[in-house]
Structures are given as structure tokens and as C-alpha cells.
Design goal:
Helices cover 42% and strands 25% of the residues. Helix 1 runs parallel beside helix 10, helix 2 packs antiparallel against helix 3 (59-67) and helix 10 (282-299) runs antiparallel to helix 11 (303-333). The strands form 2 sheets. Strands 3, 4, 5, 8, 9, 10, 11, 12 and 13 form a 9-stranded mixed sheet that branches. Strands 6-2-1-7-15-14 form a 6-stranded mixed sheet. The chain has 14 helices and 15 strands.
């Protein structure tokens, strides 16, 4: 099979690796519009479950990813001058540049052609048996057939920015700072021995009240360094290079599509779906898309059946992640609801932000019920039974209220 993958991010590169391992005779080209090594981004997070999947599907690249990752096993929160710690599952961070380097080297070693600075026009797609649109949330290939795919991009409320820092956190670190214009917060995590990622977020009125909409890049960084000096410990924040327009503060766009394939064109990764960054699942879900598409192509000889099976499998698998992302985003958009709690309770509910019950129960009552549920089996079973049903009910009402896809 001749495969053209448009987009050289983790999803496209990993798909090319898996397809080549599945059948070395596949003729695979990855087209990336940017120069090699020019990726923007700091570190990405993942959890042990993904690493196990990578070891199962391509042990060589998995070993390289694991060797280049840093780990943590607790979270810390700075709230109103107090520090709270909680143990948690082991998390992993790896630099996006390093991840792409590993996947690119592995793909080349298997015989995949990587063509950088290769712009693919939507009205002139590559000649191939299968064309993979892995070109991100604003996919040109998908946009050309927007009516067919039924793409919908829903904007969140809060403003956010991804930055780097030379401050190496030893845990997944949250910090919440109250200003005269409302709260602003960040979460940071290490991704190599010398750097961490910091994601800053605030409500739109705080964004404008602090003047972040009017300041230049050095001014914004200086203000954030001042507000978060207690966690940066004298280290600077790092934005995009000056020639790249600085670091924007967008609202997050949640992308969904009615279908993921059209003829021999199929969507992969952020071209198919996005989930709010606060659940740290974007890279994981993109790599799992690649695993699922490879499996569908192996199990179904006919391309239409394979693409339909891939779409069904991934749409079903994404339901829990999409629900968690919706509620996580809403938790941050409703942050003042939780900040008057004692810090240890606030941090506990931060860990429960994916719950579909939490928005409908007073926070202190939810905290007490959650503590009791951890000790009483009947309450724990009721929570597990009621939560998903409430989530499905709310999601169904949201879908029924939506008009035709844009």
C-alpha cells in the first residue's frame, strides 16, 4: 500500500513506524511543512499505561522514549501561601523536540521517507492509496471537506499560554495566585534534566485587568515571573522566539468531527479531535489513534471497512477522555467556587475535577461524600454508578441543543 501522511507530529510519525513494522513493503511518505527540528513546544506528559502500549507495539522506540523521560510521583499545590502535597500515579514528561527526534529516527531506520518543508495543498493531495490528515486542529485537508466531516470547534472561556522555564520541578506543581483582577494559576512539570513546562491560565477579565492583552512579550513574561516568583525560585520563563510572534494567549478550542474518513482520506490526532490540555492526554490519544488505525488496516482487507472500523473504535474509546476534559475545563473556569476551601480540600477536589457529579454538589459536601465513599463500599459503588449516567445525560442534552454542524 502507498501511504501519504500529511503532518510530521507524533501521530503521523508513529503511524508510519507501525505500518512499516506491519508490512515493510508499504511505501510511506510523511510530509511536514516545517523544517526538521523546528517544532514549537516544551514538554508533553504521559502515564505508565501509554508506555506499556508503546513497548507492546514498537519496543525499540518505546525504550528510547522511556530513557529520555523524567518522572514524578506526587503533586504539590501552592494556595494562599500554603503548600499541600499529595502522592499520585507516576507521571512522565519528555521534550516534544526529543520525542519527534526519536520517532523520526525510528521511522527513517524502517524505510519511511520524511519530507520536511513539504507543503501539501488541500486541493492537490498526494497520489496514494491512503492519505492521512495528521496536520493538526486546523487541518487543511479536513477543512477542504468541512461539510462532509462535520467539524465543530468550540471555544473555551479562559485564556492560556504554554511557556518553558529552567526551573526544574520535582513534582507536578500547581500554583494559584490572587491578584486585584482575579485569580491566575499555572501548572508545571519537568520534561528534561534542565527544563520544565509551565501552563498559565486565567479568566478573560483577569487577562485584560492585568494588562496581558496590551503588553509585549518581555512585559508579559516579567509580570508572570513576578507573580509566580515563589515557585520559579529565580529562574526565567521562556517564550517563543521573537521572530515567531511571541507566545499567544488563545482560548482552547475543543474539536469534534461527525466522521473521520472520506474516500481514502482519514483523520488522525488533533485533526480528528482535541481534549482540554488540563487532562494531559493530547499526545497519548494521538499515538493511540495511530495504534488503532494500524490495527484496523491489518484486520480489514478493504480500505472502506478498515477506516470505518477505526472510526468506530476510536470514537468509542474517546468518550471517557472527552468527558473528563469537559469537566476539567469547567472546573478551572469555575475556580473561585473552590478556592475558599481549606487548601487540602481544594487540592483533593482538583484531583476530582473530572467528575460529572462535582459541578452539581456543593464542594464541601462533595469532599465529605468522597472521603466517605473511599471508606464505605456502598457509597463507592453508588458514585461509580451515578457519575457516568449523569455525564451521559448532560452530554445528550448538549448534543440535542446543538444545531447542524458548522
Amino acid at each position: 500500500m502507498k501511504v501519504a501522511c500529511v503532518g510530521g507530529g507524533p501521530a503521523g510519525l508513529y503511524l508510519s513506524i507501525l505500518l512499516k513494522r506491519q508490512d515493510p513493503a508499504h511505501d510511506i511518505t510523511v510530509h511536514e511543512r516545517n523544517p526538521e527540528g523546528s517544532t514549537y513546544g516544551w514538554g508533553v506528559t504521559y502515564w505508565r499505561g501509554l508506555l506499556d502500549e508503546l513497548h507492546a507495539h514498537d519496543p525499540e522506540s518505546a525504550r528510547a522514549v522511556e530513557a529520555s523521560s523524567v518522572r514524578w510521583n506526587e503533586g504539590v499545590a501552592h494556595v494562599r501561601g500554603r503548600l499541600t502535597r499529595q502522592p499520585g500515579d507516576t507521571g512522565h514528561g519528555i521534550g516534544r523536540h526529543r520525542l519527534l527526534e526519536i520517532l523520526s529516527d525510528r521511522a527513517r531506520a524502517l524505510g519511511v521517507r520524511l519530507e520536511f518543508e513539504s507543503e501539501v495543498r488541500a486541493d492537490d493531495p498526494p497520489e496514494a492509496d491512503l492519505v492521512v490528515a495528521a496536520d493538526g486542529v486546523h487541518s487543511a485537508l479536513r477543512t477542504r471537506h468541512a461539510g462532509h466531516f462535520g467539524a465543530r470547534l468550540t471555544a473555551g472561556r479562559n485564556r492560556y499560554v504554554w511557556l518553558g522555564t529552567t526551573r526544574v520541578f520535582d513534582s507536578f506543581t500547581f500554583a494559584f495566585v490572587e491578584t486585584g483582577h482575579g485569580w491566575i494559576w499555572c501548572y508545571g512539570y519537568p520534561y528534561d534534566p534542565g527544563h520544565s513546562t509551565c501552563v498559565f491560565e486565567c479568566a478573560p477579565e483577569t487577562f485584560t485587568g492585568l494588562g496581558l492583552d496590551r503588553q509585549d512579550e518581555p512585559g508579559r513574561l516579567a509580570l508572570l515571573e513576578q507573580l509566580f516568583a515563589h515557585i520559579l525560585d529565580g529562574h526565567p520563563l521562556i517564550g517563543r522566539p521573537a521572530g515567531d510572534g511571541g507566545s499567544p494567549w488563545p482560548t482552547f478550542g475543543t474539536l469534534t468531527n461527525r466522521t473521520w474518513h472520506r474516500g481514502n482520506l482519514v483523520l488522525l490526532g488533533d485533526a480528528a479531535h482535541t481534549t482540554h490540555y488540563s487532562i494531559g492526554a493530547g499526545t497519548t490519544l494521538a499515538l493511540q489513534d495511530a495504534i488503532a488505525l494500524t490495527a484496523a488496516l491489518r484486520e480489514h482487507a478493504a480500505l472502506p471497512q478498515a477506516l470505518a472500523a477505526y472510526e468506530r473504535a476510536r470514537m468509542a474509546a474517546l468518550l471517557s477522555a472527552q468527558s473528563a476534559a469537559r469537566y476539567s475545563a469547567r472546573w478551572y473556569e469555575s475556580l473561585p467556587r473552590y478556592l475558599d476551601l481549606p487548601p487540602e480540600q481544594m487540592f483533593a477536589l482538583l484531583g476530582q475535577r473530572h467528575s460529572p457529579l462535582l459541578p452539581y454538589v456543593p464542594p464541601q459536601l462533595y469532599y465529605r461524600l468522597d472521603r466517605a465513599a473511599g471508606q464505605l463500599g456502598a457509597l463507592r459503588r453508588l458514585k461509580r454508578w451515578l457519575g457516568p449516567r449523569l455525564a451521559r445525560s448532560v452530554h445528550a442534552r448538549e448534543l440535542s441543543s446543538r444545531g447542524p454542524a458548522d
